[in-house]
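Pasting as-is:
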Amino acid sequence: MLFNSYDFVFLFFPLILAGYGFFKKVCQGRLSDAHKVNAANGLLLAASFIFYVWTGLGSLPVLAGSMAVNYGVFLLMKKAEWKKAALAAGLILNLGALIYFKYAGNGADLPLGISFFTFTQVAFLMEAYRGNLNRADILSYGLYVSFFPKIMQGPITLPGEMFPQLEKKDREVSWEKIYRSFYLFVLGLSKKVLLADTFGKAADFGYASLPALNTGDGIIVMLSYTLQLYFDFSGYCDMAMGIAGMLGFDLPVNFDSPYKAGNIIEFWKRWHITLTRFFTKYLYIPLGGNRKGRGRTYCNYLLVFLVSGIWHGVGWQFMVWGLMHG
């Protein structure tokens, strides 16, 4: 189920939004603050699983199994003597599953959102290992991973961004925030339907007729594909932020006009911001960042972007693309 589908716009989300609002009103004054938080998180967790199953039932065992394993690793990490071994096992299992499904398995059977929910859980384990996440109940953890506005295409959220919101006692949403979030959703929907899909038709036509293209046609096709990629992904992230906002959550900004960037470094500070942040925080800095000399810094850049290329897609061309950016 896509955000721009009739099922989502006219059925699923209106029912969830109305049901969530009614549920909070019913609970008002009847439950303690802690029970209200758990009940609200439980409702949104159920909605997230319904959304995921609606989109693709076959992927559910992978998501559920991944969540169960990672939460078990988190519990093991609470014992000091097992902390490092548990983290290592968790990272191997997460990255191993991602590599298996993306590269060893059949691409057509790739579990929905696996790249995003895997990195979300890697961030969870890393922050727990670093002592920045001492407590996470099963409901909050489940919703952190599977929250339906972000599970399919991000943004990649960090525990420090989501858990304070998940544990917040008063999650009331003002009419002004609903209005702003609805506006953001419509803006993203317009990017996707009016711009990305239109440019996509031009790109598809061009790539299907390559032998007949002249130089001008080729430039138009390349630009169409470039703009299709941006408006599709940026529009989706705007819709995700708008949907989350109407439910009382704030998701991080993922795009900041990247095609206005003056150089490649600035571009990656504007394009898919949460992915760049993830690689900086959990790969570039642990490798030494820029603290061990210029040569080591350049090697770290290349390795980070090689991994980024592999994450983006299957095939040698993605590795070349990643190394070019590095």
